[in-house]
Structures are given as structure tokens and as C-alpha cells.
Amino acid sequence: MKRSLALTSLLLSAGLVSTTAQSADFASADRVTGLNEIGLISMNNISGSIQDIERVIALKADEQGASWYRIIRMQEESHVDRWQVQAILYA
After folding, report:
1. What is the pTM of this model?
2. Which of 3, 21, 52, 67 is the most exposed place for a label (fewest CB within 10 A)?
């Protein structure tokens, strides 16, 4: 819980999280057929749980104007709770 609270505080202070609701939603591979790919998010050395990482990706996708995102790679680094992640953004 402390780690999650610390991550949220860090993201709020960095401007990566706002208190408004996010609008970008996760899309499975079968759901993106026909959607327009508009970008790629690639982030390294992100700390937190899988849910924290998904939240960060959703917020970054929303920030870049995406309606949908699909995580194509999520790999834990050698340090526990440190992640590398890539996601495709869709309109």
C-alpha cells in the first residue's frame, strides 16, 4: 500500500496523473481490428504493481489523445516491481 501511495504521489507531482477520469480503455488484440493506430508508448524502469503500470499506460494514452490502448509487451526487470512496457495507441 505504501508503494502504491508513493507511486500515485510521484505521478501526481510529475503531472502524469490527474484527478479527472481517464477515457482511454484497454483493448484486447481481437478488439483493435479496424481501429486506427496512432502511436506507441514505450516506458522503462517503471515501479509498481501490474495494476499501477496499466493505470500509467492508460493515463499516458489518454494524454496523447487515444481512445484505446493495447499493451504488447510488459516485462519485469531484474529488480522486483520494476517494469518495461510497450503499448500501441488507437483512435
Report:
1. 0.70
2. 21
